[in-house]
Design brief:
Shape: extended
Largest sheet: 8 strands, mixed
Radius of gyration: 26 Å
Helix content: 40-55%
Structural class: alpha/beta
Number of strands: 8
Organism: Psychracetigena formicireducens
CATH architecture: Alpha-Beta Complex
Protein name: Signal peptide peptidase SppA
EC number: 3.4.21.-
Number of domains: 1
Domain Peptidase S49: 103-249
Pfam family, one: Peptidase_S49
CATH superfamily: 2-enoyl-CoA Hydratase, Chain A, domain 1
Order of helices and strands: HEHEHEHEEHHHEHEHEHHH
Length: 303
């Protein structure tokens, strides 16, 4: 191949590559900065337990994936977390709270109807919290429900025998003695103290002031504003405007970030699916199904 043909070929390749970059660059890069909405709905759990619907529970895995998506997209300048949650497991709430605390872009919480206990815990480190005047929030506390299932086991004709290595290994499955009640209270108080310190740090409030509020009491949004637990009253649009203001942008496009859509198998036959749960209930009977549900739900202290 002659020298002139090689030069012409190189020039042609450069032109084609330039056109491709120009074309796809226009498609990929949005005309305006973006504010991302992430909707978190349901109880807070360590995992989804195989539930088929992504928004059935708030899990660290779910939140991590969505925040990483927002962090990695350079066009997203701020995030609004739209939260509706009654709270849930302690460690999961703490893990999610740490993610929000460490998130580098402006992040604003928009409270829905109810954001209580663990729901408020994960909100505490946001840059701003926006609530409706009638939003139910607060409930800064810890609850532990111990189930004495002896009566149900007797009705079912089930006799449970337990062998333990460790004096208190079975403390969650037998009637509480005064000593074990003290041990559980000590755990609950320690978790409560962690909650108080998190709110004090996230909201920049004196620990003594938060401790006075941390009775488990519920507040409506207007009360929470007066107490310093939220920053402003308003809905989703107010939260979007605040997020854009914190990001220093004048024009923006709002987008929704959502978890992956489950497959048809997960919807109908996967762990936690309706058909699977109906089959288990039919196989085990109503009483055993109730016992199974209770033991899964109330086995640990919760925010």
């Amino acid at each position: 191949m002659s020298r002139s043909k090689i030069i012409a070929l190189i020039i042609g390749v450069v032109i084609v590559v330039s056109l491709i970059v120009l074309f796809f660059g226009q498609e990929i890069v949005p005309p305006h900065p973006r504010v991302a909405i992430i909707t978190l709905t349901g109880p807070i759990q360590g995992s989804d337990g195989g539930l088929p619907f992504p928004d059935t529970a708030i899990t660290p895995e779910l939140v991590r994936g969505l925040l990483e998506q927002a962090e990695g997209d350079r066009s997203i300048k701020a995030v609004v977390l739209r939260i509706d949650s009654p709270g849930g497991m302690i460690a999961a709430s703490q893990e999610i709270g740490d993610m929000i605390k460490e998130f580098e872009k402006p992040i604003v919480v928009s409270m829905g109807d109810q954001v209580t206990s663990g729901g408020y815990y994960i909100s505490a480190h946001a840059d701003m919290i926006i609530a409706q005047a009638g939003t139910i929030t607060g409930s800064i506390g810890v609850i532990f429900t111990h189930l004495n299932v002896d009566g149900l086991l007797e009705k079912l004709g089930i006799e449970m025998e337990t062998v333990t290595g460790g004096e208190h290994k079975d403390m969650f499955v037998t009637p509480l003695t005064p000593e074990r009640r003290y041990l559980i209270q000590r755990i609950t108080d320690a978790a409560h103290d962690q909650f108080i310190h998190t709110v004090a740090e996230g909201r920049d409030l004196p620990i003594s002031e938060v401790r006075e509020l941390a009775t488990g009491e519920l507040f409506i949004g207007r009360q929470a504003l007066e107490l310093g637990l939220v920053d402003r009253l308003g809905g989703r649009q107010v939260a979007i405007n605040v997020a854009a203001e914190l990001a220093g942008i004048q024009e923006w496009v709002v987008i929704e970030l959502a978890p992956p859509v489950p497959s048809l198998f997960d919807l109908f036959l996967g762990g936690g699916s309706i058909l699977r749960e109906m089959a288990i209930a039919r196989l085990l009977g109503d009483e055993i199904t109730l016992l199974r549900t209770l033991l899964k739900t109330y086995s640990l202290p919760r925010y």
